[in-house]
Design a protein that fits this description.
Blueprint: E1 2-6, E2 12-17, H1 20-23, H2 29-42, H3 102-118, E3 122-125, H4 135-146, E4 151-155, H5 160-166, E5 172-176, H6 182-187, E6 190-194, H7 195-204
Parallel strand pairs: 1-3, 3-6, 4-5, 4-6
Antiparallel strand pairs: 1-2
């Protein structure tokens, strides 16, 4: 797939062929969903906690005598049936992390990138470079390229000037290409990447060593 390459002024300067195995892969929607659920679940802190009856700080004295009151027999105010008592079967701290093989995670990324490419949502730049942090420059060139849509700006390596310039823009997020993930891919309208970031993606998302079964599309299943 051939796409145009732009400069930061929004002018077309050349063109480039996107790697076919990455940007024209078979689209497996179930695999993308599984990867997204895994990432969202793993991000949960899981620190919820409710006290059981053994953890409540209340008197251990018997509420009233066993017999002769006409009431049901009770031995503790900490029982879950009383206000201020413990919680029966309440939540406890736990991990929500899910496991997913690396080959499947990378196949999900290729599916998401292929969806973006087929919809024309991949924007390639010759380079992204700023001499100093300047939010206005990022706003100008992003608005020229994505026309008001939200944008995920991929960087080949850490660039403090670009990252500082974009972090106050609500519809732009910078991310190093080696940290590419399914949540950010699906959460932004456009994927903007310089040629150097494209090379990073090609270096580790090449499916040459991946098993073929994870590439089966929904139609082929």
């Amino acid at each position: 797939m051939k796409v145009s390459v732009f400069n930061m002024a929004g002018d077309e300067v050349s063109s480039v062929d996107l790697p076919t195995p990455i940007f024209e892969a078979n689209i497996n929607r179930d695999l993308m969903h599984q990867a997204l659920v895994r990432q969202l679940a793993s991000a949960r802190r899981g620190t919820h906690k409710a006290k059981g009856r053994s953890e409540i700080n209340r008197t251990t004295r018997k509420m009233y005598r066993q017999k002769g009151t006409g009431n049901a027999r009770h031995g503790s105010r900490r029982a879950p049936i009383f206000v201020g008592g413990g919680v029966a079967h309440g939540p406890t701290p736990r991990s929500y992390a899910k496991k997913m093989p690396r080959k499947m995670r990378r196949a999900a990324l290729r599916s998401a990138l292929s969806v973006k490419a087929s919809n024309g949502d991949i924007v390639v730049l010759d380079e992204v470079k700023l001499d100093a942090p300047k939010t206005r420059q990022i706003v100008d060139f992003v608005d020229n390229l994505v026309d008001g849509d939200s944008a995920l700006l991929l960087l080949a390596e850490q660039d403090a000037n670009v990252e500082k310039s974009a972090r106050n823009i609500p519809y732009v997020k910078t991310l190093r290409a080696s940290y590419l993930n399914i949540r950010d891919l699906l959460g932004f309208d456009k994927i903007v990447m310089p040629l150097a970031a494209l090379e990073v993606i090609d270096s580790y998302l090449n499916p040459a060593d991946d098993s073929a079964w994870v590439e089966i599309s929904d139609e082929e299943e």
